[in-house]
Amino acid sequence: MLSKSLMFNLHHVHPHLAIFTKPKCLYPLRKSSIPTTLTTTSISPSTSTSTNVHTIFHKKCNNNNMLAPMSSSQFDEFHPDPSLTNDDLKPTTIDQRNFSGWEMASLWIGLVVGVPSYYLAGSLVDLGMSWWQGIAIVVLANLVTLVPLILIGQPGTKFGISFPVLARSSFGIKGAHIPTLLRALVGCGWYGIETWIGGEAIFLLLPKVVKTSSLSQSISWLGTSPLEFACFITFWIAQLAIVWKGIDGIRELEKYSAPILISLTCCLLIWAYVKAGGFGHMLDLSSRITNLEFWSLFFPSLTANIGFWATLALNIPDFTRYAKSQHDQIIGQAGLPIFMGLFTFVGLAVTSSTKVIFGHVISNPITLLGEIGGLLTMVLAIFGISLATITTNIAANVVAPANALVNLSPSWFNFRRGAILTALLGIVCQPWRLLKSSESFVYTWLVGYSALLGPIMGIILVDYYLIQRMNLSIQDLYTLSPNGVYYYSSGYNLRAILALVIGILPVIPGFLQNVGILDSIPKSFAIIYNNAWFFSLFLAGGLYWIISFLKKKQEKIDPLLPSSS
Description:
This protein is mostly helical. The protein has 24 helices and no strands. The longest helix has 31 residues. It is found in: Membrane.
């Protein structure tokens, strides 16, 4: 389910830096290629600073007037601090830019077609909305989410950098650990949820005698049965085989899974239509709540649905850094609202049809496929649910936490090690408790974590587009030099951290009430919580812009004042 400027008035932001003209595209140059008209302070090549001749940039634009990606040979000119990079964190080269528009779209199809998406509109109907109101909210939320997706995806494609590296530009070289680890925490929770769903598919395969044994009885302290937990662990282990192949394996998985998932979804829709004699029952699902009650549910429901992909909107550079061009990343992502609208329609249509077919509503697609019966159906069901779960889980919930851990300690973590730790934390989150009801899933989990991601997104967007003016110093993103543009105060941008904390604080009372810690809170805090993503994004982003503006104004008055934050 956002980014910094190298050349935006460098003299006033960091007076110790040399003054350069603002380029549209930036490239590191060798000493021998420095223009004779430009002079810099002579510094030892071993010193990694912003004024080092290795950090001089010049224009070298492609036809799209965007930064051309580094070629393999250009890494010879790239001298990052070893503690800040490894092969997973370096900017992507031309050879690595192989995601076309179709492959980006395939990524989203694989992400959308899954059990949690199937639940979304149905959860809103369970709360009393009509079928079209549920779908409309899902589509509207994804149209809103599409904006930050494209905006934050832009620096990923332009500079070839991942989300943790992008976060260094706004939060500081060391401060970037704060937003990346918060994003990783949410990813671990989602990894657990998706893995639990895959485990339910395995449970569906088991013989009836096993499913009715004492092992299927729930244990209070565990919150589920030993048998279901064992199925969860089995699916948990099976996913690691895909993760082991890295980003190329994920790309191939998403690319070839998309048409299969579309076909299986169409088969399920056709089956429901034929068996129920049309979708008349779904169309008869009118609202069971008053207009006042609808609007009281509208904003928290919209926030929850934005929160559904707010996770990936934040770390989308992890994928757009592999896109061939800006056109490919934009076209590939533009289909998200359509994909979500169509798939939630399928979920609602099939769920409402079960009332006619079986005499009672079956909202869980795994339970539904078990009721249909038949060996072929069972095989297709297990294959389809497993494929849908894996394509969503690995792309959305492994890449971001794994990269955050790599950023935390590049010398010890690589993508594989980060993915394994992510999977372990997914167990700790106890996803079976999060999915126990529609209300806890929508209002506690989805709304709750959107309060963490909203302010991070607001700060990065303001920093990259309004303060940095879409220019970044790649060299300074990989240096611990105190003279680096993004070193700020001992590696932390205190302005961004302050804005983040203030953006989160007003949402905490509402969250504590929803988890049962507080019995009651003032109405104002309830309204803030129901609009957590919007409120925290604009509060943190706006505050960060004001503080940065005042800081820049102060530095203009006294250009010799050291820039420390």
